[in-house]
Structures are given as C-alpha cells and as structure tokens.
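FYI - complex with C2E, inputs then prediction.
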Amino acid sequence: MDPGRPAGVNRTNLYVLAIVVALVAAGVFAVARSDVLTGWTLQMTLISAVMIALLATVWVLRRRLRDTSAVAGLVHRSLQYHDERLRVSEAQLGEAMDMAGMAYWEYDVATSSFGFDDRMLALMKTNAEQMAGYCLAADEFIERMVHPDEGAKLREDIGRCLLAVAPKQIFASEVRLRCGDGQSRWFALRFHYVPATDAIAAGIMGAALDVDEAHRAEDRLRLLANVFEFSGEAIVVTDADNRIVSINRSFTRLTGYEIDDVRGQNPRILSAGRMPARGYATMWQDIAEKGGWEGEIWDRRKDGSCYPKWLTISTLKDSAGKITHHIGSFTDISERKLAEERIYHLAHHDTLTGLPNRFSLHNRLTQAIVSVRRESRSLAVMFLDLDHFKAINDTLGHPVGDRLLIEVALRLKSCVRESDVVARLGGDEFVVVMTDIGDAPIGVVSAMASKIQQRLTEPCVIDGRDLHATPSIGIAVFPSDGADADTLMKNADVAMYHAKSRGRHNYQFFAASMNEAAAERVELEGSLRQAIDGGELLLHYQPQIDAVSGRVVGVEALVRWQHSSRGMVPPAKFIPLAEETGLIEPLGRWVLNAACRQLWTLGRQGRQGLRMAVNLSARQLREEKLVDHVQELLAAYRLEPGDLELEITESAAMENADITIGILRRLRDLGVALAIDDFGTGYSSLAYLKLLPIQRLKLDRSFVRDIETDHNDAIICSATIALAHSLGLEVVAEGVETEAQLTYLKYLGCDLIQGYYYSKPLPEDALIEFLAREPSAS
Ligand code: C2E
Ligand code: CA
Ligand code: CA
C-alpha cells in the first residue's frame, strides 16, 4: 500500500451518514408519536432531536475539520514526496543521458518546429544564441543545421514517423549536422511519435547521439575492407594454424580459386612443388623469427598452369604476442621475369644473330678455362673475321650484310658441338671457343678450322646474289697460348691478322713471333699513314713489250715506299697491310693520280699511245667513288681512256662477283682497259672470265718461271693463251726473265711480254731513258 495515502478520509462519509440517520430518526419518531406528544413534549422532543442533531453535527463537523487538516497535511507530504521523486529521476535521467552522450529533441506538429535541450546544444557545439533559442522552425533547422546531403532524408524519416500507426514505433536516422565549430558531425537520431494529450501537443520525441567517431571508424574500416578486396595484389589471410580464412578478388583472379575452394585449406595447395623443402623451412623460420618473409616462389593455378610470384608474408599477433593470423600478399611476376630475361638476353646476346656477345663470351670463356684447367685439358679460341665484308655492306647495303651475318652465324653453329661457344663480337668478327679438344689439339682444331672455312665458302644466296663470306681465322690454344680469357682472345686476334696478311681465307695458329710481327705492323701502319700524305710514296714503271714488234706498248705502275729509316719498303709488305687497315683507299687514289699524271707527262714528251697499267686492290674495286675518281682523272689530264688499264686479280674479281662485275662494266663504259692480274693462281674459271668486260689476261709469273722445266706449267701457259685468244683476249706474260721463256711464249702466241728480261720496274727518269733508247717507230 501506498504509505502516503491519508487513512481517515473515507470515514467522514460514515459520520455524515450517522448524523443524517439521527435527524431522520428523530423526525420519524416525532411524526409517529404526534398523538402522544403534546405541544410541549413535542416541542421538547423536537428541540432535543434538533439539539442532538446539532451536537452530532458539531461533533461530526469538528471531527471532519480535524480529519480534513490531516488529509491536507498528507496531501502536502505526498506532493513533496513526488516532487523529490521527480527531481531524483530527472537527475538520474540526466546523468544517464550525459553518460550515454545523448541529447533530447522534439518535434512539435502544431508549430512544425524542432526543440532541443541543453545537451543537444552542447553536442552540436553551439549555444542558444547561435541557435536562435532552443527551438527552430523545421525548415530553418534543416536548411541551417543539417548537411545538404542528408536534409531530404531527414525530412522523409520525420514524415514516416508521423505517419506511423504502431504506438511507440521507434525510428532511426543518421544525419550530419553542421556544428557551431564549423565541422559537420554524424548524429544518430532515434525517435517516436507522441500523440496529443491534455497536457502536450502531438509531436515526436527523440534522442540524439554524436556518432561521428564511430562513423569515421566505420568509414575507415569500410575503406580498409575495400583496400583488401580491391587490392591489385592477391591477398590471402590464414589463421594461426595456417588455414585460409579469407582471400580477395585479386587472389581469385590470379589463382582461379574462389573462397569456397580454399577456405580452411593450407596455402600449400597452391604450390607448384618447385621450391625445395629446405626453402620452405627457411621461410617458416624467418616468419617465426623476423615476423615475415618475402621471396619468389612458383605456384600452380586452379587450371594447372604454373607461374612465378613474388610473395610477402607477414604476421598478426594478439596482445600477448601470439600469432593469430598470417597475411600473404603476392603478384604474378611472369611478365617481369620475362622482361628480365629479355633484358638479360639483350645484355648478353648480339641482337642481330642471337649469338652471345663480347661480354657474354668473356664470361663463358673464363668459366670454360676454369673447368678445363681443373681437368688438365685444353681449349681453343678461334677468332674469325670475314674477308671483304665491309665492301658487301658498303655496296649492297646493310640489310644484305645483316642477312649474310645471320647466315654465317647459323653455319658456324652448325659446325661446332653443343658445348662449344659461338659468339659475335660485332661487325664481321666472330669467335668460336672449342671447349674440349682432347690431347691432340692441333689436329682437332685444324680439322674444325677447315670445316668452318669450307662451310663458309659455300655461296650464300641473298636476294638472288651469290655472296661469299670467306673467313680469316686465328687460333690460340689454352694453356700454351694464354692462361686467361683476355690473353687467349688477344693472341687469337693476332693470329687472325696474320691469316689476313697471308692472303686471307686461311687459318693460322698463334705463334709468339706473331706478337712481334703484330707490333711491327702497328708501327708500320702508323708510318704508312704518314707516308701517303708525306710524299714518301713513288711509282716505278715496268715496260710491257709487244711480243711481235718488240716495241714498248705500255708500262705497269708499281708503287714504292721510300721509308725515312727503313729504306725502300717492298709493296708485298705494305699493300696487304694497307688493305687490312683501309689505308689502301687513300693509297690507291694516290697511285691512280700519280700514274695518270705520268701518262700525261709522257704524252707531252711525245709518247702518246703508251698504255699505263695500274694495280687495283680488291677493296678499291668495291669503293663507291672509284668510277667517279677515274672519270675525273681522265678528264683532268685529258687522257685517252684506252691508255689507262686497270689490273685486278682473279680472286678480287671473283669475290662477290655481282658487285665487281657492275663496277667493271661502268669502268669499261668509260673506255678504260681492264686486265686480269696473276691469272692461274686463283679459280682460273674461264667460264666466269667470259662475264667480265676485260681485254687482257696476265699470266702469272709462277707459270712463266718454270715453263722450261715443268711440263705442267708449259701446258697451262699454252692452254691459257689458246683459251684467252678464243675469248678474244690478249695475254701478257709476267716475270719473263730468260730468252728461252721469251722464245717459248712467242711460240705460243703470247701477245705481250713483261719481265726482267726486258726491264725491271724503273723510276721515272730511267723509264724515260729506256723509252728514248727504243728504235723509232718509223
Ligand atoms: P704484280 O702486280 O704481280 O706486279 C708484278 C710484280 O712482279 C712486281 O713486284 C714486279 O717487280 C715483279 N716482277 C716483274 N718482272 C719480274 C721478273 O722478271 N722476275 C721477278 N722475280 N719479278 C718480276 P712488286 O713491284 O714488288 O709488286 C708486288 C706486288 O705488289 C704487285 O704484284 C702488286 O700486286 C702489288 N702492287 C704493286 N704496286 C701496287 C699498286 O700501286 N697498287 C696495288 N694495289 N698493288 C700494287
Ligand atoms: Ca700487276
Ligand atoms: Ca701480276
């Protein structure tokens, strides 16, 4: 029972009832006994009854009065008590709201406005003044205080709440409110509809909570979840026992596995099985000790294909330091590895032929030396240089040259064993390393050198042309010719130069003396360069005599080098050098010019019609500007073109015949005479000769020399002369020293004679004297 309720309040009614009953009883009695009661008695009785009633009434009223004041006291106390209760619960509510960080707000339907409590103002970091009081019209509130992105939504939520029929249905909404500090903050609103009562108007009451922090945290979490999900790296999360807990999209894209395929599995299922068990052991050791590992491993996709990946594993630990999760992130590095391999290949290989390049050769050679040294074996380094390759490049263009080089690379590879190395150093230089040549190196290497020569000599058909890429080969053998890669390469190179100077298209083993020769060569090359510019060159002239008339019909210009300290250097010594180094070009130009000038001088001295033969080297023959140069000289000295004869050797004419024939034809078109020098020493292909626009053949000295003693040579001379004549060519016999040789050659019908028998090559003044001694033509 409620202790505040006043106990005597209902008894008042009993007292009032008793008085009324007494009065009624007295009245009834008086009426009933009116016959007995007389006027006095009656009066007395009535007065008594009234008195009793009055007394009773007074008593009752007194009692009532006493009771009423007690009730008033009780009511007062009760009110006090309720006030206190209200205050306490209000304080409790306030405290609870403070602790919850909650504020109160309401919406009044009648005035269509929002009202707020102090807490709400505090949460919004604003005060009543700034808010224009505790109450704001709904439109103004939404416009001023609600973030524009959420205004419409808040309106809608309030609207739904007002329409709600279910009593106390709670609505929730999140809005960003613009706070007094200029920031927008997220608030969670919870509210319900309150119908009108006598005391309050209809509206909404609600609570508000600042959830900005939580909202941001949630945003961060969402962001992190997205980062995980959409990361370009595949990510797999495993638990402490390394069972897969979660994967992201990239994981699925990369491996083909969905989460259902792998959940609870060990990531080992991805392995391609290429990493040795030892590797995994180190990996787990690193994870345990350093908290992570990264490296390259090979995995297998769901479809079975393998790929290399770069994997980073890190661990997550709980507060006690115990590992709770492993996070593996990885990318497919196939592309990167391919690119690396490409770069590696580019760095180590020649782009044109795909052969190892100089750098790579050096490494391989060094490795090979280490292993043959260990096994006390030998190896050979062959240095190959293609003869006259530059000319092909210059005249037919680089694309043709490139194709020739590719063909050479293929042929070289086809000659050697798998374990041997074929490399290209650049240009037309190749190196073959024979890594196992047993204990009879010279024989094995010679056989290989011959095989290579033979293989490369077979014509290469490029663009319908037969091209030749004959090699000059220098060979150095480990350990006798060098103990390291550099020395072997250098000595093989020296031997190669030696092969070049021996007339190309041959192979030479390195000999220590070659280094001296090489040094001399370097010295000679330097001084030859100076000689060409410095006036140390001169021409000697050897007469050519008509076999029938005995008259001088021409001279051959032969270059001499009057060296300042060495004296007269024979052409056999410096012409090959000039060819190798390219100096033949300026040298050849000098000779042509000097010979033409001499021809002009002779003409002015009355020796018109004398022919001047000039030697052309193979290299000059492919020089672009040769024809122009000859033409200029003929014009400058006003020479009869037929008075100039150009001698080319048979082998020079045969080398890359297509090019040569073209140039020879152009020279022939100028009217210049052409002769084949040293005929019989080369291919001696008469069929081929038919193609050349030549007038003369010069029978080589070697046949003439032994004509009297060697029956074969005599036959060769005889046959050559007959065949030449059948082709309409004149024959010049070279090196005729004896009368017997002269007689026999005359007998064979040889047209012209050149040799010591008549004259050695003569300096200019001696030639003039020689010519002057001639009986006059008349
Ligand atoms: P080659 O064109 O065959 O020149 C003929 C060589 O035979 C000359 O030697 C000459 O002195 C020599 N000779 C001539 N008659 C006789 C003889 O009866 N007996 C002997 N034993 N030798 C005789 P040389 O002057 O030493 O020239 C050697 C080679 O040098 C020439 O051979 C030629 O290939 C080259 N040469 C000379 N001058 C030039 C030049 O201006 N340009 C080019 N490219 N090569 C040249
Ligand atoms: Ca000659
Ligand atoms: Ca000759």
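The pocket of C2E (ligand 1) is lined by residues 542, 558-559, 570-572, 575, 591, 615-617, 677-678, 701, 734-737, 755-756, 761 (CB under 6 Å). The chain has 27 helices and 27 strands.
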